[in-house]
Design goal:
Number of helices: 4
Number of strands: 8
CATH architecture: 2-Layer Sandwich
Low-confidence stretches: 159-176
Number of domains: 1
Largest sheet: 5 strands, antiparallel
Mean pLDDT: 76
Helix content: 25-40%
CATH class: Alpha Beta
Structural class: alpha+beta
Strand content: 25-35%
Distance between the termini: 24 Å
Order of helices and strands: EEEHHHEEHEEE
Radius of gyration: 15 Å
Oligomer: single chain
Length: about 180
């Protein structure tokens, strides 16, 4: 069984996240660590589109990229990734034939954990997780005081795969 790891810098410490089980033929395609800035949204979209090409139909890739944009925007706007100097957003993409798994890990927030919000009719925001819940095959949120928040979704053209987050913020070897 192949093991994947992402190491995230948390202050002066590193937190290593690992995943040893894969489901539904899904395999890791890559991870990117981006600055907690608005410009990272477009960078994440371009990067993920390139990784997902050939794994999904063009329409499904478009949907995955829209949802990724929402999650990276949320991480930049609502978490310490965008509020603190040197904040980071980590994006992880995995895919199998006809299905993609996308995960966005941010630096967390003392004020909130990501939840679907009711957006008022006139508001310009507040629809990101609502869109994820409406468009994704399955999705979820995980919070860890050490590693931050992880919001993940799966999208695809076939039957849903088992709803298992790829990096559920379990530490491999604890905090370094």
């Amino acid at each position: 069984m192949k093991q994947s790891q992402i190491t995230r810098k948390r202050g002066s410490r590193n937190v290593t996240l690992s995943r040893t089980a894969w489901h539904g033929g899904v395999r890791p395609l890559g991870s990117a660590e981006l600055p907690g800035q608005a410009s990272s949204v477009g960078e994440a979209r371009r990067w993920a589109r390139g990784l997902l090409a050939g794994w999904l139909s063009n329409d499904a890739v478009d949907d995955a990229v829209v949802l990724l944009s929402e999650l990276v925007t949320n991480a930049v706007v609502h978490s310490d990734s965008g509020r603190k100097p040197n904040g980071l957003v980590t994006v992880f993409v995995a895919a199998g034939v006809g299905v993609a798994h996308v995960e966005v890990i941010d630096d967390g927030s003392t004020a909130s954990v990501p939840t679907v919000q009711e957006a008022s009719e006139g508001s310009g925001g507040g629809r990101g997780l609502w869109m994820v819940s409406a468009m994704a095959t399955t999705w979820g949120v995980h919070h860890d005081d050490e590693a931050g928040n992880a919001v993940w979704f799966e999208i695809g053209e076939g039957r849903p795969v088992d709803a298992v987050p790829v990096f559920s913020l379990h530490h491999m070897g604890g905090v370094e």
